[in-house]
Every structure is written in structure tokens, then in C-alpha cells.
Amino acid sequence: MNDNTQNKLDQATSARLGKLASKPVDTSHLAEHLQTLMRDVVQQDEPQTLRIPTWMRWRPMSAAAMILITVMLGLLVMQNTTQPVIAAPAGLAQINHEVSGDMAEQMKVTSVEQANAMLAAQAKGAMPVPDLPGQMQSCCLHEHKGVTLTCVSLQRNGHLITVALADGKKLHCPEGETVIRDGREFCTHSVDKVNM
């Protein structure tokens, strides 16, 4: 642009601004209008900053419910899990006296197979009798602290021996003297002249 054109543009702008300056401007409503706009903006922002979203209001209750459910399931599992019973040596000695003294309801048997067949017919889940050295004489089932024992009476080397069998998950031996025979570890007890 040349200087002549620039001068004409400046003169036209000055003339227009002069006309606008001579007209009165009403600013009385400007302050009120600005206050209204600012109030609207603040009211729109306020709920977003102060209001807790719905999903966050449920979150603590959901966490509490989850903890409660977990605790209840844990208690249920613990109640249904059976703890093994400790085999009291005095109780086992009493069973030995009953079996060896013909006080128990015994079934006369001569072999392991015969004993297992008779025990299976008497009760489901009875522990089977393993192959034992000695002459089988009788077998029976006994209850000891809620656990069913398979009891066998046999003669070996002129001695009467009582064998009591139970599920190791249901019945445990208490601490006693440890004896190792043929690489196997046994826990022994002696009560009323009965060695276990």
C-alpha cells in the first residue's frame, strides 16, 4: 500500500470513531449482565466439583458387602472342614481290652478276605484290613470319638494282638515315643500294660 491510500484509510477510521465517541453508551446494564454470566458459570461448575458421582457413592457399600461375603464364605469353609481327632491312648487301651476280652460284638474270621467282606457288609466306608502276619481270629467295628475304627484280633508268635485301623485324616496319634522299624516311623504309647 502506498502512503496516499494509508492516509485515506486512517482518515475514514478517525471519522467513524469520532461519530461513535459522540454517541452516549449505556453501561448500567453491563455490570448486571456480567454478574449474571459469572453466576451461571459458577453454578454450572459447582455440582461437578462438589457433587460425588453416583458410582462413587456405592463403592464403599460394595466393598463392605464384598468383605462380608468373603468372611461368611471363610466361616462356612472352616465349619465344614473336619479337624482330625486325637486318638487317646487310654481309649484305645479300653478298645483293646474289649476286643481281646470278647466283650465287643466280634465276627469270627480266619482270613483277611473274609474279614474285609464281613466288615464291608456291616458298614460302608469301613477301613479294609491289610495283609497282616499272624493267624486271624476276629474282627469288629468300634467307635472312638466319632471315628469308626476297624479292629482285628490275631495270634502271632503266641501273643494276642489287636490291630485298630482308621482314616489318618480323621484320627491322629498324640505325641509319644518314636520307634523306627524297617525304615518306618512309629509313635508308641503304653497304658495299663497295653503297648501301642
Q: How many helices in DSSP terms?
A: 5
Terminal-residue CA separation: 122 Å
Number of DSSP E strands: 10
**Cα gyration radius (Å):** 48 Å
Please give the order of strands in the largest beta sheet. 2-3-4-5
Percent range of helical residues: 40-55%
Secondary structure class reads alpha+beta
Q: What summary fits the major beta sheet?
A: 4 strands, antiparallel
On the 0 to 100 scale, the average pLDDT is 76
Q: What's the quick description here?
A:
This protein has 196 residues and is α+β, with helices and mostly antiparallel strands.
Structure characteristics:
196 residues, alpha+beta, four-stranded antiparallel β-sheet, two-stranded parallel sheet, rod-shaped
Please, could you describe this protein's structure?
47% of the residues lie in helices and 24% in strands. The chain has 196 residues and is α+β, with helices and mostly antiparallel strands. The chain has helices at residues 3-22, 28-50, 54-80, 89-100, 112-122, and strands spanning 85-86, 107-108, 135-144, 147-156, 159-165, 171-172, 177-181, 184-188, 190-191, 194-195. 11% of the residues are buried. The termini are far apart. It has a domain at 85-195. Strand 3 (135-144) and strand 4 form a beta hairpin. The protein is rod-shaped. The protein has a 4-stranded antiparallel sheet with strand order 2-3-4-5, sandwiched between helices. The longest helix is centred in the middle third of the chain and has 27 residues, at 54-80. It has 5 helices and 10 strands; from the N terminus they run αααβαβαββββββββ. The model has no long low-confidence stretch (mean pLDDT 76).
